[in-house]
Amino acid sequence: MCHVIVTCRSMLWTLLSIVVAFAELIAFMSADWLIGKAKPLSSEDMDSGTGGSQEPYRPTLGIYGRCTRISHMQISRRDTLCGPYAENFSEIASGFWQATAIFLAVGIMILCAVAFVSVFTMCVQSIMKKSIFNVCGLLQGIAGLFLILGLILYPAGWGCQKAISYCGHYASAYKLGDCSLGWAFYTAIGGTVLTFICAVFSAQAEIATSSDKVQEEIEEGKNLICLL
User: Fold this and answer.
1) For 49-80, what is each residue's pLDDT tens digit?
2) Where is this protein found (predicted)?
């Protein structure tokens, strides 16, 4: 018989697992990993005076994507064009970034799988006589290690030609040059920290769903068990 067990700690772990997976996925897909050096306004932009702010635009560069501003001469306004600069995996600007993409992709896939499974932990608390929370926590720890490896390797690719074109000639491995870090990089770091927090907190979720109070509710014949 299926018992639906809902506790504050198990629900919090489930929500955190979903948030972490989405945060890492959004960061990976974003082009805002590096914010490039300021580009001066073109003569068309300065003459038109319709492009909004007259501050120089700073393009952004991601692991496989980029955002840059282009001018539409016919309508005399600036626009931002975002999309992948690499049509396939081999065209990613640096071998280090290729390794970063692999490690992050593996970690994110594990996190997404755990997030999907976590939704069903209200009904299923064990797999092959092993706590589903402990299994998911172990997977989250492994995913966190993959994410750390990816984030460590990413700055090593700052010396590639693509990064230099955005960050200036002073850019090199682990040196930003004229660039600054974008929100996607910080989001990836924050998501990695939360991944390990989720891995540790999964043990608390397991304790909450197997407590004496839960067992008493089951013995009383209740199928829906909600505890604080």
Assistant:
1) 544 445 667 899 999 999 887 655 444 445 67
2) Membrane
